[in-house]
Design goal:
This protein is mostly helical. Helix 2 runs antiparallel to helix 4. It has one domain. The strands form 2 sheets. It has a two-stranded antiparallel ribbon. Strands 3-4 form a two-stranded antiparallel sheet.
Length: 235
C-alpha cells in the first residue's frame, strides 16, 4: 500500500475513533431520559462482548491462525545470516526492542501479551456484570470516564517500552469494558450498547492498524536491509 494511502487511512480511522470517544463523553454527561430496559439486553450485549474478548484471546494465543486477518505471526526468518525463532511476532533486532518483554529466556510481544491479559480480565468482568447481577449503578459515571482514559492511553502506548507498553494494552481493553458497563448502567439503552460494541471493534482494529503502521515505520527508517523489510514493502 502506498505510504500516502496508508497514512490517510490511519488518520481517518483515528479521527473516527476520537469522534466515538467524544460521543461517549456526551452520553456520559447527558444520558437519555427514556430508558429501554429489555430482559434480553444484558444476555445479548454480554454475549457480543464476550465474543470480542474470546476472539482477542484466540488471536494472542494462536497468532499463526489469525495472521491473515490481523497480521499476528511468529517470526522464523533468516536475519543477518542466522535463524530467528521468537514467541513474539517481532524480529530480533534493536528497532523492535521496545516492543518486546523478556521472561527468562523467551521473548514476548508486549502489546499482544497486554491485550491477552486485558481480554481475560474483561471476560471475567463481563460474566459478573452481564450474567452475575453485579451492580455498578453508584460508580457508573466515574468508571465510564476511566474507560475513556483507558482507550486514550491504549492509543498512546507506542510512546512507551516493554512492561509499560504491556500495562497500557491491558488498560486499553479494560477501558473498553468499563465504557460498555458504565454507559449500559447510565443509559439502559440497547441502541447505545450496540453502538458501543461496534465502536469497540473499530477501536481494536484501529489500534492494530496503528501498530502495523509503527512496525512499517521502524523498518522503513532502518539502515540495515533485511527480509522483514522486503516482506513489509510487498505487503
Amino acid at each position: 500500500m502506498p505510504k500516502i494511502s496508508r497514512d490517510f487511512i490511519l488518520m481517518l480511522n483515528m479521527g473516527i475513533s476520537i469522534i466515538g470517544l467524544l460521543i461517549v463523553l456526551v452520553l456520559t454527561f447527558n444520558p437519555p431520559i427514556v430508558h429501554e430496559d429489555f430482559f434480553w439486553q444484558k444476555p445479548l450485549i454480554g454475549s457480543l462482548f464476550s465474543l470480542i474478548c474470546i476472539s482477542g484471546i484466540f488471536a494472542a494465543l494462536f497468532p499463526n491462525q489469525c495472521s491473515h486477518a490481523i497480521h499476528f505471526r511468529k517470526e522464523s526468518i533468516n536475519l543477518t545470516s542466522r535463524r530467528v525463532h521468537s514467541v513474539s511476532h517481532h524480529p530480533d533486532c534493536e528497532g523492535f526492542s521496545a516492543h518486546v518483554i523478556h521472561v527468562t529466556n523467551r521473548r514476548f510481544c508486549a502489546a499482544c501479551t497486554g491485550l491477552l491479559l486485558g481480554a481475560i480480565v474483561a471476560l471475567v468482568g463481563t460474566v459478573f456484570y452481564f450474567s452475575g447481577g453485579l451492580s455498578v449503578e453508584k460508580v457508573s459515571f466515574p468508571i465510564t470516564l476511566i474507560g475513556v482514559a483507558g482507550i486514550v492511553l491504549g492509543f498512546l502506548q507506542l510512546k512507551f517500552k516493554s512492561f509499560v507498553r504491556l500495562t497500557l494494552n491491558v488498560i486499553f481493553v479494560l477501558g473498553a469494558f468499563l465504557i460498555l458497563v458504565g454507559l449500559d448502567e447510565l443509559t439502559k439503552s440497547v441502541f447505545v450498547d450496540l453502538f458501543l460494541i461496534a465502536f469497540i471493534v473499530f477501536w481494536i482494529l484501529t489500534r492494530i492498524q496503528f501498530s502495523r503502521w509503527d512496525h512499517w515505520r521502524i523498518c522503513r527508517n532502518c539502515k540495515s536491509p533485511c527480509e522483514v523489510w522486503e516482506m513489509k514493502k510487498r505487503a
